[in-house]
Amino acid sequence: MFQTLINVLRLLSMLSFQQQNNMINNHNQHLLFMNTMMPSMTAQSSQQQQQQQQQENQYDRSSINSQQCLADKIQAVRHLWESEN
Fold first, then answer.
1. Which residues contact 50 (CB under 8 A, 6 or more apart)?
2. If you placed Cys at 2, which of 19, 22, 60, 81 could pair as Cys (CB 3.0 to 4.6 Å)?
3. How far is CA 17 from the centre of its chain?
4. Integer angstrom CA distances of residue 82 from 5, 76, 85
């Protein structure tokens, strides 16, 4: 039973990590598109892009925090399982 729980938590952790990587890749592709298709951006649109980056970085930090929380839960389950066996 504990092994199944540990496997489920591992799967959730991997999915969380994959989701974080997908967010970063999408962000990088968006930046690449913006830089290649619109090289003559105005100062105002550049400022808007910086604000958008800051907002996306907040989401990245939130994802990292949730991933850390999940890792802490996995560690707690492992500790509980090891102490009972």
1. none
2. 81
3. 6
4. 13, 10, 5
